[in-house]
């Protein structure tokens, strides 16, 4: 049968179309879902990427308009420089802004230890310490870390009589001592248990705040008891104490009780601890203690171990009498006061569960806060007023751990039970089916995790049985869900991702972002956010992003300029892994 010319043309066009389709779907630019990834199977960004390339010096303050990335994918082939200065290896932009600190009119209330972020945010990269090594794995890291990773000897000498930390060969070793832990931190924790048997670690006490934590040995010792402790201290003369804590794999953050509220929600912590934390609780009309009262949940405990509790010299007696007056004015009751065999004493206070005591005070000083508190405590001044208690039956909340992980507080206005249930199920399925099975992450090397957009804490809840911990970050421009995170028995902070985080460099093994970075480009440059991510993540650590492909393509190009290896999964997940690459040091002339 004769074949017409028309049939031949159709056949040729069909063949050509099939060939083109086959080429497109097998080219380097095609991205297929893949069933499993090796933890060493990475590729660098495709040199044939459709994103236009051009050289841009991101360290310059005069960043070209196209680098703002609000409306364009044109990120260019970025050129990075090392941050300058002898202290750049441990640079924390918002705490090391010495130009702003010099301009302060007062340092009386620790203003110089608070956040003073530079403008614009820096886009340089931090050098690595000489001889930096992959961290000692958990749980061995709780007791010893590489000295070269945090080469700070001052605290070893300064606290040598108190057994905070010792240098032994290549390691810094943590014997579990402390200013108040004369017989070790284990003995001290047992002392607390005997002093108040109603404290059940890992049951009714799950979330703890340790004020002025030193190297976080108190919080570290409670991990085995099912307790997660937010340990905090300022960046001060106790050199690198928080850096030591995070290198050990213990939750910690840099903060200070100064002139602004702590970046935690109200009624969050089951127990607050202070062992010689050097905070003047009665300062400025008692504002520091009123701030503790704000973040302590109703019925929660405050443990204060300091010389005014067990010494009777003139100075200590005066401080004790001031504390008696102040705690009485806010209706805290003393549930026990005792001294152990080492001569160290403590007092344990309890916050009321009802406002009836507030109303019965002879003088309303401090007064009840008369306006609705902004729960997102971000750059909020300390107030000289008494936070109101939440409504409802607060005595029945929280439930015992671990049941509270999947429970909702009665009368909660932040989340409904069905909403939390669906969110928990979604993250549980996603983590088990995708994050743990198919993404190029070696989870056995992951200890310190930060969730950049935590929501209700579902990602952290889904990882609860792994030997890691999660710092849940609730961005200040997103719905305020941090109180739900704490109600579930997890920890976290408020933060604005257009600014630098209060943490040392190289302190997290994995940062996670779920549909955050795309929206963030409407407020600040994605390049500066990625520079901050690079500052925080350890060499060998990961960035895991769930987002749309437009955002993922931007990130892939920027991470490639940083020599991170990347992998994309199902056009929705990006895994970046940081290497040891740093820009060359400028030549001396």
Automatic annotation (TrEMBL):
Family: Belongs to the methyltransferase superfamily.
Database matches in InterPro entries: Put_SAM_MeTrfase, SAM-dependent_MTases_sf
Pfam families: Methyltransf_29 (PF03141)
GO MF: methyltransferase activity
Species name: Arabidopsis suecica (Swedish thale-cress)
GO biological process: one example: methylation
EC number: 2.1.1.-
Membrane-protein topology: Single-pass type II membrane protein
Principal subcellular localisation of the protein: membrane
Key words of the record: Glycoprotein, Membrane, Methyltransferase, Signal-anchor, Transferase, Transmembrane, Transmembrane helix
Cellular compartments annotated: Endomembrane system; Membrane
Record-given protein name: Methyltransferase
A single Gene Ontology CC term: trans-Golgi network
